[in-house]
């Protein structure tokens, strides 16, 4: 007798909801994949071998391009061929928030004192819904670059929330900017040290207009110079152009405030995805005293992370921000993947990067 | 200013081997890689040039050394490579009749491996560095040791062989 019931199937999203109500094991992760650049290749020679003959390295070699085995910054083939960034264009950095997974830590964080210093390690297993479900998630479904989880991909978790950003909706104030302050432990006036913070995450809607900048202010008090980090999307700053978030649903923005435990420097880039489209922002300095170096923000009244400003291109924008956090991140690198087809995935991950925050504070 | 000799010579070695052995075939593609191609990038037949070590080979009195008419500080520097050849079971190369034991025939499997071992050896022996190097260098000696680990991996259906190759050059700065 035919049996149409698929016995033994796991409703993994439901399982995650149930577990998430009771424990903190269901994590809201950011999927991150580094940009993939083309390998540097050589395909030209100088047939007569003599320098100064005016032709240089212009003779084609027999056979296919020789791949030297390392990436070039712009993947320029040796000797005169045009810059070829095709691989990079078709495989840019992926930063996709909203990937939920059940985490069973084996060692969620372990600090080992080693000859070269202190190393944070850890190992865990993530249980995730099947790929078909993940590929239907916001952004994952819309970008053509995401295919499946692979080794070397990273999963960025919230290790510790350092500051909650106050929820607010503002209409056409302060030149179409929304200033958000911190609400830490229920007290808005609490000092927020910056050296512990790696990233921030907000959910926002924007009615009318497009976001041009996320501006972070720190080290600011009435008499003390302020420093500022702008994530600038405008093409004039080198970004990919202002970002339209729309007001239909809240979009998640998850961006770095420190990169690999080091302060962001002017010219660094960060990527966000909205409806599957990548938008690149460039870090620029602002304020009276240059770019914000978050690792130097130790939490004194004139040395703290102060506020976030969302700036749009339209004076009539309504900006609505919820669930904003600044957090210390845990970066998990996928080590192995077991795919139990149509049921769930078991992803083993390790963390081998991390530094002692006390040193960030001390050395700045 | 010191020249980036290790990269210049490594790239010239790879390009020289590729140009020579591909030139012996009838528009076939033998792929030369630096260490190690990602599995998605790997194409057959493959020649992989892996650098295994480098360092001072010989130092001179007062570190005085010349290259052509240029005098400077430096020493004789040595580099060792392991050159790997991998042919898949289905890899085939049509060798030009002038370079094969028969007419324009397709070489496969062990026959291809044998041909590649000999011709990679020939190419590193005869390689004219001036044609491939991006900047002037002076390679003084080159030694290809015997091909070893010649065999077949049944799980992958790969034929392969490896040989160590050493060279020395004038490291002038």
Describe this protein's structure:
The complex is a heterodimer of chains A (364) and B (173). By secondary structure, chain A is mostly beta strands. Chain A contains 4 helices and 21 strands. Chain A has helices at residues 12-22, 86-90, 131-134, 357-363, and strands at residues 26-33, 39-42, 44-45, 59-60, 66-71, 94-114, 117-128, 154-165, 168-171, 177-181, 199-207, 211-218, 227-232, 251-256, 258-259, 262-263, 269-274, 277-286, 305-312, 318-340, 344-351. In chain A, the strands form 5 sheets. Chain A has a 6-stranded antiparallel beta barrel with strand order 1-6-7-21-20-8. Chain A has a 6-stranded antiparallel sheet with strand order 10-19-12-13-18-17, with no helix packed on it. In chain A, strands 2-5 form a two-stranded antiparallel ribbon. Chain A is globular. Chain B has 173 residues and is of the alpha+beta class. Chain B has helices spanning 5-23, 109-126, 129-132, and strands at residues 31-34, 46-67, 70-88, 92-94, 106-108, 139-144, 148-153, 158-172. In chain B, strands 1, 2, 3, 6, 7 and 8 form a 6-stranded mixed sheet that branches. In chain B, β7 (148-153) and β8 (158-172) form a beta hairpin. The model of chain B has no long low-confidence stretch (mean pLDDT 90). The chains are: A mainly beta (364), B alpha+beta (173). Chain A binds chain B through residues 39, 42, 45-51, 57, 61-64, 66-70, 78-79, and chain B through 10-11, 14-15, 18-23, 25, 28-37, 41, 43, 128, 130-132, 134, 136.
């Amino acid at each position: 007798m035919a049996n149409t019931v698929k016995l033994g199937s796991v409703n993994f999203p439901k399982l995650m909801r149930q577990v998430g109500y009771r424990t903190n094991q269901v994590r809201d992760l950011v999927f991150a994949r580094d940009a993939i650049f083309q390998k540097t290749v050589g395909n030209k020679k100088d047939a007569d071998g003599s320098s100064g003959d005016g032709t240089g390295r212009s003779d084609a070699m027999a056979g296919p391009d020789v791949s030297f085995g390392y990436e070039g910054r712009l993947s320029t083939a040796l000797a005169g061929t045009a810059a070829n960034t095709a691989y990079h264009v078709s495989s840019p950095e992926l930063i996709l928030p909203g990937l939920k997974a059940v985490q069973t830590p084996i060692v969620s964080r372990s600090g080992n004192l080693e000859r070269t210093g202190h190393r944070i390690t850890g190992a865990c297993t993530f249980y995730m819904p099947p790929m078909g479900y993940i590929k239907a998630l916001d952004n994952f479904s819309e970008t053509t670059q995401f295919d499946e989880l692979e080794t070397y991909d990273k999963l960025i978790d919230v290790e510790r929330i350092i500051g909650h950003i106050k929820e607010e909706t503002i209409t056409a104030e302060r030149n179409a900017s929304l200033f958000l302050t911190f609400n830490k432990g229920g007290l808005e006036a609490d000092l927020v040290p910056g050296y512990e913070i790696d990233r921030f995450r907000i959910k926002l809607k924007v009615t009318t207009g497009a976001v041009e900048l996320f501006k972070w202010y720190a080290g600011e008090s009435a008499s003390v110079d302020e420093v500022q980090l702008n994530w600038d999307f405008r093409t004039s700053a080198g970004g990919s152009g202002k970002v339209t978030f729309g007001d239909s649903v809240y979009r998640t923005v998850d961006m770095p405030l420190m990169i690999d435990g080091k302060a962001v420097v002017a010219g660094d880039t960060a990527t966000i995805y909205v409806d599957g489209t990548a938008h690149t922002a460039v870090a620029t300095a602002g304020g009276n005293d240059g770019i914000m170096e978050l690792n130097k923000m130790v939490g004194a009244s004139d040395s703290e992370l102060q506020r976030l400003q969302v700036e749009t291109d339209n004076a009539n924008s309504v900006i609505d921000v919820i669930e904003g956090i600044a957090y210390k991140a845990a970066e998990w690198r996928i080590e192995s993947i077991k795919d139990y087809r149509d049921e769930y995935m078991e992803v083993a991950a390790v963390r081998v990067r991390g530094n002692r925050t006390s040193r960030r504070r001390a050395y700045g | 200013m010191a020249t980036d000799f290790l990269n210049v010579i490594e790239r010239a070695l790879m390009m020289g081997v590729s140009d020579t052995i591909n030139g012996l075939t009838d528009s076939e593609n033998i792929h030369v890689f630096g260490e190690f191609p990602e599995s998605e990038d790997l194409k057959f037949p493959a020649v992989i040039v892996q650098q295994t070590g480098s360092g001072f080979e010989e130092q001179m009195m007062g570190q005085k050394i010349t290259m052509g008419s240029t005098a400077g500080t430096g020493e004789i520097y040595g580099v060792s490579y392991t050159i790997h050849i991998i042919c898949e079971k289905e890899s085939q190369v049509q060798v030009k009749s002038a370079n094969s034991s028969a007419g324009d025939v397709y070489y496969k499997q062990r026959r291809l491996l044998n041909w590649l071992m000999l011709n990679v050896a020939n190419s590193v022996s005869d390689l004219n560095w001036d044609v491939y190097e991006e900047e002037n260098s002076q390679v003084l000696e080159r030694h290809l040791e015997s091909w070893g680990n010649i065999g077949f991996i049944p799980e992958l259906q790969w034929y392969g062989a490896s040989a160590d190759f050493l060279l020395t050059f004038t490291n002038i700065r």
